[in-house]
Every structure is written in C-alpha cells, then in structure tokens.
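> forwarded from #structure-qc
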C-alpha cells in the first residue's frame, strides 16, 4: 500500500501554460489505476484552475496565504519564518502542518516550484541559463544546475535542447518572472 501512496499526487499546485503562452496555476490530482491483480496499469488525472482568492474547498486550509506568497515571490529569498507569519502560525506548527499536508518541507516545496517554473522558462524563452537561475530564485547557475539535474535527471541545457525540439513552440525573450 505504501508504494501506491507514493504514486498518487493529491492537491498538487502546478503552474502550467495556457492559450498563447499565458501561465496559470492549477490544482492537480493524479491517482493510480489498478487491474484486478492490484498492478498499476495507468493513472487518472484531474486538473482544475486555482482561483486567485485561494484554493477551492479549503483544500489545504491555513496555507493559502503562504502558497500565494511563494507563487508570487518565488524568485526572492523566502524563509519559513516569513511563511509561518503570513499563515498566522508558530514556526514549529507551520513546518509540522505543512509537511503533513504536502509531504514536503516548505523549502523543498519552494525549490520544486522554482524548478517547475524554470523548466517552463527553458522551453519557452531564450534566456541564458544564468538568467533563468537568478530569475527563479537560485543563488547561481551551478546551484541551479545541480538541483535541476537532481529533479529532472538532466542538466538545464540538455532539458532545453530536448524539449524545444519536441515542443516546436514559439520562443519569447523572457517568461520566467513578471515583476
């Protein structure tokens, strides 16, 4: 059963492309589909738009302000004390409840968010790798490359080359950060 739980993704907040390159935030739920013998044979996925005023149905009650702050300021340095204060929680309560809700620490969640945004910038812009790194909140290109490879299994340059060839999408000068 533990293996099945790791295959599921519930209430994951993702930034995805929409019509004409516009970006939007969505909530995605993905669960495994099993055959009669219990083997995973596919996945079922539902994605819905994240409203500007918070998450629908109180999905992660209490974290809406922190998630919105991370979404809007991912390119800046953000610490757990700031996020706890924004959420009106003690630091310890915030960290414990965030981990219980998302199965990630707040900083790991923020790093994954930054990497997802960077992955889109690599495909849809011509920004230098160092610019993508800095625009997405990484201290330098070396740190960015190390974290990117850990998350995606390839360097940012390899990722860009692979997915630009596959996507065949128009490229803009900058899409990673809108100030």
């Amino acid at each position: 059963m533990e293996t099945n739980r790791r295959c599921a993704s519930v209430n994951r907040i993702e930034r995805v492309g929409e019509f004409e390159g516009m970006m939007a935030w969505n909530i995605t739920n993905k669960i495994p589909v099993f055959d009669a013998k219990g083997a995973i044979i596919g996945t079922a996925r539902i994605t819905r738009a994240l409203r500007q005023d918070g998450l629908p149905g109180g999905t992660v009650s209490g974290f809406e302000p922190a998630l919105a702050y991370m979404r809007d300021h991912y390119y800046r340095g953000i610490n757990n004390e700031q996020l706890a204060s924004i959420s009106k929680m003690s630091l310890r309560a915030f960290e414990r409840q965030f981990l219980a809700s998302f199965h990630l620490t707040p900083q790991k969640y923020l790093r994954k968010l930054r990497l997802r945004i960077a992955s889109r910038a690599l495909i849809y812009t011509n920004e230098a790798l160092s610019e993508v790194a800095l625009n997405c909140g990484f201290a330098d290109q070396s740190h960015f490359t190390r974290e990117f490879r850990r998350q995606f299994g390839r360097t940012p340059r390899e990722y860009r080359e692979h997915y630009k060839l596959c996507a065949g999408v128009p490229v803009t000068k900058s899409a990673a950060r809108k100030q």
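QC bot note: The CA atoms of residues 35 and 109 lie 32 Å apart. The longest strand covers residues 23-34.
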